[in-house]
Write a structure and sequence with these properties.
There is one protein chain. This protein is α+β, with helices and mostly antiparallel strands. Among the domains are: 247 residues, Tetratricopeptide repeat domain (Serine Threonine Protein Phosphatase 5, Tetratricopeptide repeat, Alpha Horseshoe), CATH 1.25.40; 198 residues, Histidine kinase-like ATPase, C-terminal domain (Heat Shock Protein 90, 2-Layer Sandwich), CATH 3.30.565.10. The chain is built from 24 helices and seven strands. A five-stranded mixed sheet has the order 2-4-5-7-6, covered by helices on one side. Helices cover 73% and strands 8% of the residues. Helix 7 runs antiparallel to helix 8, helix 8 packs parallel to helix 10 and helix 20 crosses helix 21. A hairpin with a 2-residue loop joins strand 6 and strand 7.
């Protein structure tokens, strides 16, 4: 009977649990169905203003499933503003879990939809979000470029809305953060104060909290600990007012850090441990890493070296998993102190050098004093070991000294001659190599700044002025001046980003196309898996191929002139660039060239090959160049240039 009652209880409990699950499942399905109806309605109504969209969807924009539903509805109804809003929301969600590459991809798609909708508000928001993601990754140049572009658009709006004004503050705040990374603290404070003024006028407590904290960080870096603490505490007050848990984590970490620097460890410890506990609950890897770093620093101050090493290794593990370069560098620096305390100078030196190498990609200045101290300690340790070994051999050497004195002297003399010869030969080779590089760059500069090209371009622009086509004249003069400026900048750099190279080639084609009465169609196709800001190529490497396509392939063709530039990646070791023209082909071009009275030897391709060979020396693989004539039924239909440039995978 007792067993039967137990079975009955189990059955009854199972039934109740099933009914509860059914209830919650129906509630979730009902909510999901309600949101689909809402998403469909908004995507059909298609409001343009960001505030109108956000006022309806703000409560859902942290829910990735609902934002994907809204994105699908917007795409189905060709609602570009809605697609941009949804993609930006999804990008922020990815950024908050430290998935920065995916975040950038989503924000770039959002920006594309904003461009299609010609919506400045969404364009500014998208650009700022891309900049924030790059800044979190400590990739300074694109971060600064995107924030500056957002700021330029925002200032160009004649009657800025509330969201445009807010994003001006966001841009200035982010630019200030970039100046912090570059150790330009006074410039950073100037940007934060500009942002603070806008946030004060709109009474935006979140913006005020962020800017007061950033000012505190700059003051701390300048050594003004009391001023920094006051700003951190003001920021904490605003974060408490808006009940921002992540804001409290940031401020408590910073306040704890000040107390560590003041050696007030008893005050620092509970604050830092509380911040770590909150960061772990939030799951934001950026602040989890920062909290472990602070805790490790506290343990060092309290001489708890084992605990310090354990927490710093946790910080390093998180930072490396999510490519948080600043946190990686800071963790390694502090671990170097732990290794030094253990008298493991070799490991300390290695850890500190790795930290400095990472910082060198972010900072404009480095403090090498600490690493010099470790080098001296490590070298002294090696020398002491060598002295001990030499002492053991000293007696045996003394017995053979007289007999071997002449041999030793001759050997030393020969060794000195050999070392001197080796140094001279290597130095001569290095100077010859540097001279070769300099000559290549000078030849490249002369090739790009061809007087005929400059003269003909200015003549073409002059015709617009003579014909009173002012808009065309101003447009092409701006393009020409920008191209010349880029060429001059490129002449000082051995390599540039693929993004800058493609932009320069677009300008070059715009200018050259004037002389073809704008008959040439120039198309650029880039594989969306390639981040053109990261990929490096030799400066102005594509111009000779485009020039050949123009003047040898298309100049003699009467109509239907086209050049296509394709960029794709079939291997992690290479980036592949194709330049395809539909010109007359190399054979017909050679005949025309042979009949010309004035012949000029072209050195552009040979120079380009030499520059590519020099660029490839920094990689395990070399470049490849293939030029093919294209045929259709034995008739030439153009030329295909395929260039494979080695990259870092």
């Amino acid at each position: 009977m007792r067993c039967l009652n137990l079975k009955s209880i189990i059955k009854l409990s199972t039934l109740y649990l099933y009914l509860i699950l059914c209830y919650f499942s129906s509630e979730i399905n009902a909510q999901s169905s309600d949101f689909k109806v809402l998403a469909e309605k908004i995507s059909r109504d298609q409001p343009i203003s960001y505030n109108l969209i956000d006022s309806t969807l703000n409560a859902f924009k942290r829910d990735s499933l609902k934002m994907k539903v809204f994105l699908d509805a917007s795409k189905k109804n060709a609602y570009k503003e809605g697609a941009s809003y949804a993609l930006n929301a999804l990008g922020v969600i990815q950024r908050n879990i430290s998935n920065y590459e995916k975040s950038i991809e989503l924000h770039q798609k959002a920006n594309s939809y904003a461009d299609q909708a010609d919506n400045d508000e969404l364009r500014i928001i998208s650009l700022n979000m891309i900049g924030v993601a790059y800044r979190r990754m400590d990739i300074i140049k694109p971060a600064l470029d995107y924030h500056t572009e957002a700021l330029d658009i925002a200032y160009s709006v004649s009657d800025p809305s509330e969201i445009v004004t807010y994003n001006i503050a966001v841009s200035q705040n982010s630019i200030g953060n970039i100046y912090l990374a570059l150790q330009q603290y006074d410039l950073a404070i100037t940007q934060f104060n500009k942002s603070l003024k806008i946030e004060s006028q709109s009474s935006n407590k979140l913006g005020l909290a962020i800017n007061y904290h950033n000012i505190g960080y700059a003051e701390e870096a300048k050594g003004n600990l009391d001023a920094a603490l006051a700003n951190y505490e003001t920021s904490l007050d605003y974060n408490n007012a808006i009940d921002s848990e992540i804001g409290r984590v940031i401020c408590e970490n910073s306040i704890g850090g000040i107390y560590i620097k003041k050696e007030q460890f008893a005050k620092a410890e509970p604050i830092i441990k509380r911040a770590l506990e909150k960061a772990l609950k939030l799951g934001d890897q950026f602040y989890i890493s920062s909290s472990y770093i602070n805790l490790g620093q506290l343990e060092i101050g309290l001489n708890r070296w084992s605990a310090a090493e354990r927490n710093l290794k946790k910080a390093l593990e998180v930072a490396e998993a999510y490519n948080l370069n600043s946190s990686i560098a800071e963790s390694k620096k502090l671990l170097a102190q732990v290794s030094e305390q253990k008298n493991d100078y070799k490991t300390a030196l290695q850890q500190y050098q790795e930290a400095v190498a990472i910082e060198s990609t972010i900072l404009t200045e480095q403090n090498l004093q600490y690493v010099n101290d470790i080098v001296i300690s490590y070298e002294n340790e090696i020398k002491n070991n060598q002295i001990e070994a030499l002492a053991l051999e000293n007696e045996a050497v003394n017995m053979r000294l007289e007999r071997n004195r002449k041999i030793l002297l001759y050997s030393l003399f020969a060794l000195v001659i050999f070392i001197a010869s080796f140094i001279i030969i290597n130095r001569t080779r290095a100077l010859r190599h540097e001279k070769q590089i300099l000559l290549l760059e000078q030849d490249m500069m002369r090739s790009q700044m061809n007087p005929h090209f400059i003269f003909n371009s200015l003549n073409s622009i002059k015709l617009y002025i003579i014909n009173n086509e002012k808009e065309n004249a101003v447009y092409y003069l701006n393009k020409f001046s920008k191209l010349i400026r880029k060429i001059l900048i490129a002449s000082k750099e051995k390599e540039t980003s693929l993004s800058d190279e493609l932009e320069t080639m677009q300008l070059y084609m715009n200018i050259e196309n004037i002389r073809f009465s704008n008959e040439i169609e120039f198309e650029v196709n880039i594989d969306n898996t390639i981040n053109t800001e990261v990929v490096k190529v030799p400066s102005l490497i594509l111009q000779p191929f485009l020039e050949n396509a123009l003047w040898h392939g298309l100049s003699a063709k009467p109509e239907d002139k086209k050049i296509t530039l394709n960029v794709f990646k079939n291997s992690n070791d290479y980036i592949t660039i194709e330049i395809i023209d539909n010109g007359i082909g190399r054979i017909a071009s050679s005949r025309i060239k042979a009949n010309k009275k004035l012949k000029r030897k072209s050195v552009g391709i040979e120079l380009t090959k030499a520059r590519l060979a020099n660029f490839s020396k920094g990689f395990s693989n070399t470049y490849s160049l293939l030029i093919m004539d294209l045929y259709s039924k034995d008739e030439p239909i153009g030329t295909n240039v395929t260039l494979r440039i080695p990259t870092k995978s």
